[in-house]
Amino acid sequence: MCGIVGILGQTPVAGTIYEALKRLEYRGYDSSGVATLEDGRLTRLRARGKLVNLEKCLRETTLAGTSGIGHTRWATHGVPNETNAHPHFCGPVAVVHNGIIENFRELREEFEAQGCHFETDTDTETVAQIIALAMKDGKTPLEAVREMLGRVRGAFALGILFSGEEDLLIGARNGPPLAVGYGKGEMYLGSDAIALAPLTNSLSYLEDGDWVVMSRESVRFFDENHDEVTRPVTQTSQSAIHIDKGNYRHFMVKEIFEQPEVISHTLANYINPLDGKISIPDLDLDWNGLNRITISACGTAYIAGLVGKYWLEELAQINVDIDVASEFRYRKAPMPQDALALFISQSGETADTLAGLRHCRGHGLKIASIVNVAESTIARESDFTLPTRAGVEVGVASTKAFTCQLGVLACLAIEAGRERGVLDEARVETLLRALETLPGHIHEILRQDAQIEEIAKSLTKSRNILYLGRGTSFPIALEGALKLKEISYIHAEGYAAGELKHGPIALIDEEMPVIVVAPDDALYEKTLSNMQEVAARGGKIILISNARRCDQNANNVWSCIEIPDADTFINPILAALPVQLLAYHTAVHMGTDVDQPRNLAKSVTVE
Ligand code: M6R
């Protein structure tokens, strides 16, 4: 899940490549590099750590070339140091790579046996070695790349430059996305439209197995059989507008505070503002012919899917299977043809989710996806796309995309329930009106930010934190724990409240904060009993519930965060806000890098 950029330009390109890499930093930020061709010679600058370190190098040393490639890395093979940073050079070849070359060990052993010297611990260097060796044998750059493509296995998006070839840039894709951008007398290559947005809106996406040979005036696409093909030129809607934090300290908190607005944009896509009726554009399904929905996703998107399962099963009386995408396709589950496969992804590029989609496609299932990036691979490969309108999400910790995913799943469940005759018009009306109250209720919760920050301060000394919930609050407990651990590095676990007594209760002591998500719904009394089990063992309870329940428990709990009284249907969306703010403020007070936490990347394009 690295970011790659390539430019054949008219003026020196290193600065432009750096700017494009900044827009790709969400893909990885443990090292970066740029290479350009100066008088036919390859020169590069690389730096360990975040992109600002590369910027310092670029200020000190000029790279004057008008052809170049750049990379921002999320390490898979080899520690994140300068040597392992891309671009990798071998003879006349420079390579940037996103993905994993799965057979790199055997290739490396083979080349080492032939006397080749490897400089790095990366899988990527084998790509450069194969091409360089083929060129040494007299092959042209195109022939050498073709030979390399026949030898490597795995997932890759590649950008390749050659010394002495000022007007040549080759790209290749197998898995991770890659796009070609068209400029005036210039040509661009990039991991996504966002990277290229300030340069051009005209793009062609490589299909899996494609490779592309670019000059400043021409582009030739080849498919996996090396037959020349055409790929359509599309106009991207990605805006070149600079994405900044505004008055906020971090993107994450900005995105948390954007939720009233983006949830209403998202719902407006599914609830007609004129008549207030639900309509799911582009979803042409026979709901009564469906017997099962199979949901797959990763991380926070998986947790959204889990809430969706509760809603779809209750409101539409349809069976729902749900898996983390990395397990789904290896489970070898039966694939009944009367099932809909539903994939959820903010980025639309997550490798595991995409692999699950292709697995279902291979079994002939109908495919729907809930995605935030409209032009992403998952969106493009789905039969039906249900967009979230969260806008660009920069913080690695997903917040606004999550609540928007829940908004879409809620609409989907209502529509399915109506079509399947489970919900009558009056109930549909009640549920839709409940969804429309979300922006106002979310505002109310955000007004408690300062109070939640005070509570968060008390969590910073904890080594372990437990989150409990039942029904649709169980996924919110999982989400609270995931959010907290990814940005504060405190170990946290989300548990179904009823499971407490089957193991985790052994962890409870006076040191252990337990965050209980227990809105005032049909399951409240049950969760209350579990909360009392914690209280009896001295656990430090933070209760997330409605005002009435907070008042009743004032003496039992250490602290309370109120959510507004609303239709219980929307409680999981409301309860998501306090757990996001708790994680955010805890991390800020611990001084971690909130928007770019260690070891993570926003878009995970490796399996
Ligand atoms: O782009 P996706 O929604 O497919 O990403 C899935 C996960 O990688 C993502 O939700 C991850 O868990 C977040 N960092 C959680 O905050």
Structure, explained:
- This protein is an alpha/beta fold.
- The protein is built from 20 helices and 25 strands.
- The chain has an 8-stranded antiparallel β-sheet. Strands 5-6-7-8-12-13-14 form a 7-stranded antiparallel β-sheet. Strands 17-16-18-19-20 form a 5-stranded parallel β-sheet, sandwiched between helices.
- A hairpin with a 4-residue loop joins strand 9 and strand 10 (187-190).
- Helix 15 packs parallel to helix 20 (571-590), helix 16 (449-457) packs across helix 20 (571-590) and helix 17 (473-488) packs parallel to helix 20 (571-590).
- The longest helix has 20 residues, at 400-419.
- The protein binds 5-amino-5-deoxy-1-O-phosphono-D-mannitol (M6R).
- 5-amino-5-deoxy-1-O-phosphono-D-mannitol is lined by residues 298-301, 345-347, 350, 353, 396-398, 482, 486, 603-604.
- The site of 5-amino-5-deoxy-1-O-phosphono-D-mannitol has 16 residues, from helix 9 and helix 17.
Brief summary of the model shown:
By secondary structure, the chain is α/β, with parallel strands linked by helices. Helices cover 36% and strands 23% of the residues.
Topology (SSEs and partners):
Layout: E1 3-8, H1 14-23, E2 31-38, E3 41-48, H2 51-60, E4 67-73, E5 88-90, E6 93-101, H3 104-113, H4 125-136, H5 141-151, E7 154-162, E8 169-174, E9 179-182, E10 187-190, H6 193-196, E11 202-205, E12 211-214, E13 219-222, E14 228-229, E15 234-235, H7 251-257, H8 259-268, E16 292-297, H9 299-316, E17 319-324, H10 325-328, E18 339-345, H11 351-362, E19 366-371, H12 377-380, E20 384-387, H13 400-419, H14 425-436, H15 438-446, H16 449-457, E21 464-469, H17 473-488, E22 491-496, E23 513-517, H18 524-536, E24 540-546, H19 547-552, E25 559-563, H20 571-590
Parallel strand pairs: 16-17, 16-18, 18-19, 19-20, 21-22, 21-23, 23-24, 24-25
Antiparallel strand pairs: 1-4, 1-10, 2-3, 2-4, 5-6, 6-7, 7-8, 8-12, 9-10, 9-11, 11-15, 12-13, 13-14
Helix pairs in contact: 1-2, 4-5, 8-13, 8-15, 9-13, 9-17, 13-14, 15-20, 16-20, 17-20
This protein binds 5-amino-5-deoxy-1-O-phosphono-D-mannitol.
Residues 298-301, 345-347, 350, 353, 396-398, 482, 486, 603-604 line the site of 5-amino-5-deoxy-1-O-phosphono-D-mannitol.
